[in-house]
Amino acid sequence: MKVLIIGKSGQLANELLTEKPNTIEILCLGRADVDITMYESINKAISDFQPQVIINASAYTAVDKAESDQKSAYSLNQHAVTNLAKSAKQHQVRLLHVSTDFVFDGNNNKAYLVDDTTNPTSVYGASKLAGEQEILTLHPENSAIIRTSWLYSSFGNNFVKTMIKLMQERDELGVVCDQIGCPTYAKGLAQFLWSLTSRDVINQHYHWSDYGVASWYDFAVAIQNTAFNKGLLTKKITIKPIPASSYPTPATRPTFSLLNANESYQIKTSNHWAEQLEQCLTNLV
Ligand SMILES: NC(=O)C1=CN([C@@H]2O[C@H](COP(=O)(O)OP(=O)(O)OC[C@H]3O[C@@H](n4cnc5c(N)ncnc54)[C@H](OP(=O)(O)O)[C@@H]3O)[C@@H](O)[C@H]2O)C=CC1
Ligand SMILES: Cc1cn([C@H]2C[C@H](O)[C@@H](COP(=O)(O)OP(=O)(O)O[C@H]3O[C@@H](C)C(=O)[C@@H](O)[C@H]3O)O2)c(=O)[nH]c1=O
């Protein structure tokens, strides 16, 4: 089977490469190779490689920056997705597209189901939702939208690496304790995506996160303890739980964005997020 991955330098694309099953032939393209905002460019890449599956691991993921750069966010998170969906449909290729917990407004008090009402609170979330809708309109027969949350990896930039850096530089850190979700190791998501490539029939929507629940503060404390135990930090600093109101950001993030991924766990099991974090930091040592 031939699989085309878009978003070469991102954390998910790198984990997809490390987790690649032996039977798969991969072409992984980045923005230096293809301009997915131009239909002709992505259509040519698909025409040339003739994949059976495309995994879109590219996105505009700078949540705060998106508030003042809507054009770029929509260009990649909606218009490029339109191009991918159109070309995938034309070539009868399965499209696996990754989306986010930030499509929800966070007012739920139980984990979000795939068909719960979406209502993004940020430009990033709204642009990702627009991308989801393009896929369901243009190529509903053979596409899946896989929403995930709080993704991190030993590759690329993410909350785990930001925290370790700040913990090396500072004596004290305030971290938001009233936004709840679930950290997700991109390696597990990559394995789940590989499972979907070979299934005869796929759903239109999946949720994927690691097991459990956390606030950003809980996550930061676990990052410090785990990184310290592994020798990635030489000292521990004070981490204070703070309300989101004390950490103003351009984008409004959901207060509660836990995803109900029980259906996905029938396909592939995961682990508690703290065990996954331990695994990731082992790979960082
Ligand atoms: N990060 C997170 O916390 C979460 C992410 N997600 C979703 O998961 C998916 C993967 O995210 P993640 O691996 O973190 O993303 P990254 O930000 O690590 O990587 C995204 C990649 O997209 C490509 N890209 C960025 N801008 C452009 C552009 N203007 N033109 C073309 N390509 C561009 C880049 O690859 P290259 O330069 O090689 O083209 C970049 O490395 C995305 O759909 C994201 O929305 C969902 C929930 C949480
Ligand atoms: C750096 C820092 C952040 N925070 C807070 C801000 C915010 O509420 C929370 C997370 O901040 P970040 O900006 O690192 O994470 P953010 O980029 O908002 O993470 C999101 O990225 C997109 C791509 C997604 O799809 C989401 O699932 C989610 O992972 O932590 C602190 O409280 N203290 C700090 O020192």
UniProtKB/TrEMBL annotation:
<dbReference type="InterPro" id="IPR029903">
    <property type="entry name" value="RmlD-like-bd"/>
</dbReference>
<comment type="function">
    <text>Catalyzes the reduction of dTDP-6-deoxy-L-lyxo-4-hexulose to yield dTDP-L-rhamnose.</text>
</comment>
<comment type="pathway">
    <text>Carbohydrate biosynthesis; dTDP-L-rhamnose biosynthesis.</text>
</comment>
<dbReference type="Pfam" id="PF04321">
    <property type="entry name" value="RmlD_sub_bind"/>
</dbReference>
<dbReference type="InterPro" id="IPR036291">
    <property type="entry name" value="NAD(P)-bd_dom_sf"/>
</dbReference>
<keyword id="KW-0560">Oxidoreductase</keyword>
<protein>
    <recommendedName>
        <fullName>dTDP-4-dehydrorhamnose reductase</fullName>
        <ecNumber>1.1.1.133</ecNumber>
    </recommendedName>
</protein>
<dbReference type="InterPro" id="IPR005913">
    <property type="entry name" value="dTDP_dehydrorham_reduct"/>
</dbReference>
<keyword id="KW-0521">NADP</keyword>
<feature type="domain" description="RmlD-like substrate binding">
    <location>
        <begin position="1"/>
        <end position="284"/>
    </location>
</feature>
<comment type="similarity">
    <text>Belongs to the dTDP-4-dehydrorhamnose reductase family.</text>
</comment>
